[in-house]
Amino acid sequence: MNMIETRNLTKTYGDFTAVSHLNMHIQKRRVYGFLGPNGAGKSTTMKMFLGLTRPTEGQFYIDGKTYPKDRMSILKEIGSFIESPAFYGNLTGEENLEIIQKLLGLPKGSVSDALELVGLGPFRKRLAKKYSLGMKQRLGLAGALIGHPPILLLDEPTNGLDPAGIHEIRTLIRSLPRQYDCTVLVSSHLLPEVELMADDIGILNHGRLLFEGTLDDLKASARNAGFPTDNLEDTFLAMIDADNQRGGR
Ligand SMILES: Nc1ncnc2c1ncn2[C@@H]1O[C@H](COP(=O)(O)OP(=O)(O)OP(=O)(O)O)[C@@H](O)[C@H]1O
User: Fold this and answer.
1) What 8-state DSSP symbol labels residue 127?
2) What is the CA(36)–ligand 1 centre distance, in A?
3) Measured between alpha carbons, how far is 42 from 36 in angstroms, rounded to an integer?
4) What confidence score (pLDDT) does residue 105 get?
5) Residue 93, exposed/middle/buried by CB under 10 A (0-12, 13-18, 19+)?
6) Rg of the chain in Å (alpha carbons)
7) Segments in the chain below pLDDT 50
8) Rounded to whole angstroms, what are the CA distances from 17 to 9, 52, 183, 196?
9) What sequence ranges are listed for the domain ABC transporter (predicted)?
10) ipTM attached to this prediction
11) CB-defined site of ligand 1, < 6 Å
């Protein structure tokens, strides 16, 4: 079953097309890696799912609901982390999460659970403005996860983390479908990262979906198209390069 499905989803800004006729299929209880170079349109797509920017053309369906008709009930199902999340710098990490907990009407214990889940337990009493970049990313993730939403949209969640932090967050994301019955859409511009986290991937370039399927499907389709397949990152770069040579849009 598809938890998120788009049909010809398109977003233009003036005469610039940021997202073009996207047909994505994000299956329930899977991690979908949304891969593409800077400016490919990943954030714009996620912002449309959250109702933060309006599609110019096309539709999307989330858990059987239609945008814009069911916008509010769609939003209730999504936890998100889009671009650097904003916090109250003069409040502690814990206090920041308490605000979300109250807004969502969650039990008090959910704050500690979320802090532990992302490894911020020991830093709960520190002011958010004193957090390192990696700690801020973790706090953003905790904010997205706190209500155990059935759908998580995570835009480059490992940005700014050190290798140990990346490993930890990746392991956490991998475990979410099993642990919380969650469907995860996670964007990245790094194939090795997606390779370690995702069940399915979608490759976006200049707003167009170049590929969608499992990693094995990607290898097979790259082999058929004559791209290198020993190293999937080379495959990805060669696909992007070939698309750019063709004009890219
Ligand atoms: N409000 C806007 N007005 C005009 N152009 C925009 C606007 N928002 C995004 N764009 C353009 O749309 C394109 C896609 O941007 P988007 O942020 O979705 O890409 P991305 O794949 O998330 O890239 P990154 O990895 O750099 O975040 C970019 O060329 C960007 O400059």
Assistant:
1) B
2) 12
3) 7
4) 92
5) buried
6) 18
7) none
8) 11, 17, 28, 31
9) 4-231
10) 0.94
11) 13, 16, 18, 36, 38-44, 189
Q: Are 29 and 177 in contact (CB under 8 A)?
A: yes
Residue 57 and residue 172 in one domain? yes
| CATH number for position 240 | 3.40.50.300
- 111: CA distance to ligand 1 center in Å? 33
Helices 133-145 and 163-180, packing angle to 10 deg: 0
Q: Are residues 35 and 21 located together in one domain of the fold?
A: yes
Inter-axis angle of helices 109-117 and 133-145, nearest 10 = 130
Indicate which residue's Cα is closest to atom 8 of ligand 1. 44
pLDDT the model gives residue 248? 53
Say which residues have a Cβ less than 8 Å from residue 102's Cβ, sequence separation at least 6: none
- Per-residue model confidence (pLDDT) at position 129: 95
**How many domains is the chain built from?**
2
Residue 81: burial class (beta carbons within 10 Å; 0-12, 13-18, 19+): buried
